[in-house]
Design brief:
alpha+beta, 169 residues, six-stranded antiparallel sheet, 4 helices, two-stranded antiparallel ribbon
Protein backbone atom coordinates (compact mmCIF):
# COMPACT_ATOMS: atom_id res chain seq x y z
CA UNK A 1 0.00 0.00 0.00
CA UNK A 2 2.68 2.47 -0.91
CA UNK A 3 1.55 5.84 -2.17
CA UNK A 4 2.33 9.52 -2.19
CA UNK A 5 0.90 11.70 0.55
CA UNK A 6 0.77 15.48 0.72
CA UNK A 7 1.05 17.23 4.06
CA UNK A 8 -1.98 19.51 4.62
CA UNK A 9 0.13 21.97 6.63
CA UNK A 10 3.33 22.52 4.64
CA UNK A 11 2.43 20.90 1.28
CA UNK A 12 5.44 18.57 1.31
CA UNK A 13 4.93 15.37 -0.72
CA UNK A 14 6.38 12.14 0.65
CA UNK A 15 6.14 8.42 0.09
CA UNK A 16 4.08 6.30 2.44
CA UNK A 17 5.97 3.06 2.88
CA UNK A 18 4.83 -0.08 4.71
CA UNK A 19 6.12 1.35 8.00
CA UNK A 20 4.50 4.75 7.48
CA UNK A 21 6.26 8.08 7.64
CA UNK A 22 6.96 7.89 11.37
CA UNK A 23 9.67 5.25 11.49
CA UNK A 24 10.93 6.02 15.03
CA UNK A 25 7.44 5.50 16.54
CA UNK A 26 7.10 2.09 18.28
CA UNK A 27 3.47 1.74 17.10
CA UNK A 28 4.19 2.30 13.40
CA UNK A 29 3.57 -1.27 12.20
CA UNK A 30 -0.25 -1.14 12.36
CA UNK A 31 -0.79 2.61 12.51
CA UNK A 32 -3.03 4.47 10.07
CA UNK A 33 -1.38 7.80 10.85
CA UNK A 34 1.34 9.47 8.80
CA UNK A 35 3.91 11.99 10.02
CA UNK A 36 5.29 14.60 7.64
CA UNK A 37 9.09 14.34 7.50
CA UNK A 38 9.38 18.08 6.81
CA UNK A 39 7.22 19.63 9.55
CA UNK A 40 6.25 16.66 11.76
CA UNK A 41 2.48 17.17 11.35
CA UNK A 42 0.51 13.97 11.99
CA UNK A 43 -2.42 13.20 9.70
CA UNK A 44 -4.55 10.18 8.79
CA UNK A 45 -3.15 7.99 6.03
CA UNK A 46 -6.33 7.40 4.01
CA UNK A 47 -4.70 4.50 2.17
CA UNK A 48 -4.22 2.54 5.42
CA UNK A 49 -7.17 3.63 7.56
CA UNK A 50 -9.83 0.95 7.73
CA UNK A 51 -12.36 3.49 8.99
CA UNK A 52 -11.86 5.73 5.94
CA UNK A 53 -12.16 2.72 3.61
CA UNK A 54 -15.36 1.61 5.37
CA UNK A 55 -16.90 5.10 4.97
CA UNK A 56 -15.95 5.17 1.29
CA UNK A 57 -17.71 1.84 0.74
CA UNK A 58 -20.73 2.92 2.77
CA UNK A 59 -21.35 6.30 1.14
CA UNK A 60 -20.36 5.71 -2.47
CA UNK A 61 -21.36 3.41 -5.27
CA UNK A 62 -19.11 2.50 -8.17
CA UNK A 63 -20.24 3.01 -11.76
CA UNK A 64 -19.25 0.17 -14.05
CA UNK A 65 -18.73 2.40 -17.07
CA UNK A 66 -16.28 4.77 -15.36
CA UNK A 67 -13.99 5.12 -12.38
CA UNK A 68 -15.97 7.96 -10.79
CA UNK A 69 -17.73 7.51 -7.49
CA UNK A 70 -21.24 8.91 -7.16
CA UNK A 71 -23.65 9.19 -4.27
CA UNK A 72 -26.94 7.28 -4.57
CA UNK A 73 -29.95 9.35 -5.64
CA UNK A 74 -32.86 10.06 -3.35
CA UNK A 75 -36.18 8.78 -4.69
CA UNK A 76 -39.44 10.41 -3.61
CA UNK A 77 -42.50 8.17 -3.58
CA UNK A 78 -45.83 9.99 -3.81
CA UNK A 79 -49.22 8.54 -2.94
CA UNK A 80 -52.26 9.78 -4.84
CA UNK A 81 -53.91 11.23 -1.73
CA UNK A 82 -50.80 13.38 -1.10
CA UNK A 83 -51.12 15.00 -4.52
CA UNK A 84 -54.63 16.26 -3.66
CA UNK A 85 -53.22 18.53 -0.94
CA UNK A 86 -50.85 20.35 -3.29
CA UNK A 87 -52.39 23.43 -4.94
CA UNK A 88 -52.74 23.24 -8.70
CA UNK A 89 -50.74 25.64 -10.87
CA UNK A 90 -53.76 27.50 -12.23
CA UNK A 91 -54.84 28.43 -8.67
CA UNK A 92 -51.49 30.06 -7.95
CA UNK A 93 -51.72 33.57 -9.30
CA UNK A 94 -48.81 35.55 -7.96
CA UNK A 95 -49.03 39.35 -7.84
CA UNK A 96 -46.11 41.39 -9.17
CA UNK A 97 -45.37 42.89 -5.74
CA UNK A 98 -45.16 39.50 -4.01
CA UNK A 99 -42.23 38.89 -1.68
CA UNK A 100 -40.22 35.67 -1.83
CA UNK A 101 -38.35 33.93 0.99
CA UNK A 102 -34.96 35.05 -0.32
CA UNK A 103 -35.98 38.74 0.00
CA UNK A 104 -36.79 38.63 3.73
CA UNK A 105 -34.11 40.10 6.02
CA UNK A 106 -32.66 37.91 8.80
CA UNK A 107 -34.45 38.06 12.15
CA UNK A 108 -37.90 38.57 10.66
CA UNK A 109 -40.77 36.16 11.36
CA UNK A 110 -42.97 35.56 8.31
CA UNK A 111 -45.77 33.29 7.13
CA UNK A 112 -45.64 31.25 3.93
CA UNK A 113 -48.27 32.34 1.44
CA UNK A 114 -47.84 29.85 -1.43
CA UNK A 115 -45.34 28.03 -3.58
CA UNK A 116 -44.37 29.24 -7.04
CA UNK A 117 -46.12 27.50 -9.95
CA UNK A 118 -42.66 26.50 -11.21
CA UNK A 119 -41.74 24.57 -8.06
CA UNK A 120 -41.75 20.85 -8.86
CA UNK A 121 -43.89 18.34 -7.00
CA UNK A 122 -40.91 16.49 -5.42
CA UNK A 123 -39.53 19.81 -4.11
CA UNK A 124 -42.93 20.75 -2.66
CA UNK A 125 -43.23 17.38 -0.94
CA UNK A 126 -39.73 17.61 0.54
CA UNK A 127 -40.41 21.09 1.88
CA UNK A 128 -43.77 19.99 3.32
CA UNK A 129 -42.10 17.00 4.99
CA UNK A 130 -39.99 19.49 6.99
CA UNK A 131 -43.00 21.67 7.84
CA UNK A 132 -42.43 24.32 5.18
CA UNK A 133 -45.96 24.69 3.79
CA UNK A 134 -48.49 27.47 3.14
CA UNK A 135 -49.78 28.99 6.38
CA UNK A 136 -46.70 27.97 8.41
CA UNK A 137 -44.77 30.63 10.34
CA UNK A 138 -40.99 30.78 9.75
CA UNK A 139 -38.16 32.69 11.34
CA UNK A 140 -35.35 33.79 9.00
CA UNK A 141 -31.95 33.16 10.60
CA UNK A 142 -29.61 34.06 7.72
CA UNK A 143 -29.65 34.74 3.98
CA UNK A 144 -26.06 34.26 2.84
CA UNK A 145 -24.55 31.97 1.55
CA UNK A 146 -27.84 30.04 1.79
CA UNK A 147 -31.18 30.88 3.38
CA UNK A 148 -31.54 29.30 6.82
CA UNK A 149 -35.03 29.23 8.31
CA UNK A 150 -36.41 27.95 11.59
CA UNK A 151 -39.67 26.01 11.49
CA UNK A 152 -40.88 25.30 15.04
CA UNK A 153 -37.66 23.89 16.57
CA UNK A 154 -36.03 22.77 13.32
CA UNK A 155 -33.48 24.80 11.36
CA UNK A 156 -33.34 24.19 7.61
CA UNK A 157 -30.92 25.38 4.93
CA UNK A 158 -32.82 26.28 1.76
CA UNK A 159 -30.93 26.83 -1.47
CA UNK A 160 -31.33 30.18 -3.21
CA UNK A 161 -33.37 28.86 -6.16
CA UNK A 162 -35.85 27.18 -3.77
CA UNK A 163 -36.12 30.25 -1.52
CA UNK A 164 -36.95 32.32 -4.61
CA UNK A 165 -39.94 30.05 -5.33
CA UNK A 166 -41.57 30.35 -1.87
CA UNK A 167 -43.89 33.36 -1.54
CA UNK A 168 -44.39 34.90 1.90
CA UNK A 169 -46.69 37.49 3.54
Amino acid sequence: MNGRLTCPVCGYQYESGPEGACGPCPLHSDCAMACCPACGHTTINTQKSRLVQWFEKLFTTHRRDSRKYVLPRLTVHVREEEIAFIPQKENLRVPDDARTLDQVPPGEVIQIDKFSPGLSLPHQLRLQAFGVEPGQALSIIQQHPVTIVQVDRTELAVERYLAHQIYVN
